[in-house]
Input
Amino acid sequence: MEWLKQLRSTSMKKSIPGLLLFVIAAAALLFFSKCYGVFGMLSPKTFSELTPETLNGAFVDDDVPVIYDYYLEEVKTKNGRTVGTVSRQYIIDLDDELYYMGLYAHDGAMKDANEMMQACEKALNGELDPAELPVYHVRGMIRAMTEEDLGYYREYTDGLDMDEYFLPYYLEVEYINGLPIVLSWILLGVAVLLLGLGIWPVIKALTGGFQKQVRAKLSESGSLEAEAERAERFYESAPETCGVRMDRNYVFFQNGAESILLRPWDVAWAYQSTTQHRTNGIPTGKTYAAILRTMDGKQYTLGMKEAEVQTLLETMASTLPGVVLGYDKELERLYKENRNAFRQRWEEKLPELGQTRGFSGGGSL
Output
């Protein structure tokens, strides 16, 4: 069945542009959101495992031993008045008070951070036993401070003459690469979905899934192999009109990557569809398509130029005499309520095709 292999190759070629589009979209999403940083959660680090050289990009899941103070606070204002705090950036120990770094806590994480900071202040003032300090557990990715944040950080540490020990990084609590962890997982899921949407049609094309309808139609007449040979001869000999091949035995076209094979009497009705496109109410152009409606209630939309639609309909008028051509609301109603009327028309026209029987294994007219 060499013909079916040829159709499979055609489907593969038609699937490649979609694959490229989805791969580019997924790659752009990964590149701009950097949501792939969630993979760091699979091997989290503790502060003791890190050095100044390995901080940037590390995902930390550990307890914060000390919070000294905050050096930057972002507030929300309304009518010139402060109505709330959005985030704070604190100074914390990295390891045994040799190195220091920042801790970036957004609204949801500030309450625990503030309580820890206040407890540490009491411990430093001798008002609280260090053994009674609360446990403050955090997780998030360490990243380099932005230029603006670093300016406030350095302004706070000016005069200490210890810049080499105050490292220009902060751990952003419950964030990865500037995005909430939950959102990062969602975006990663979307990227994987986009890849899947691109790869699935290629897999389907490789396995012949886009020829399922063709095989089913061929099987209606008995031997799949014998009917495939007959259909192949049709495919090679029938002229193609605007992407559609037709004769008294078959109608064939590609609906995207999907191969469609019909018997002439499967096609009940065909007409032109015109879509007017507008931008802000201003007409920007029209697109056209040939609509094929079949006896089993399916609809196929074949996009093409207006002149091509008319050429196709004219060819159908001479090659498929039983097909009703042109659109009106009464035909729409009749198609929905009484497709037997379309079957009756084909029954009357079958002799013109040299046919003496009905649906050739697919039922009677």
In short: Residues 144 and 169 are 4 Å apart (CA to CA). The chain is about 40% helix and 30% strand. The longest helix spans residues 2-33.
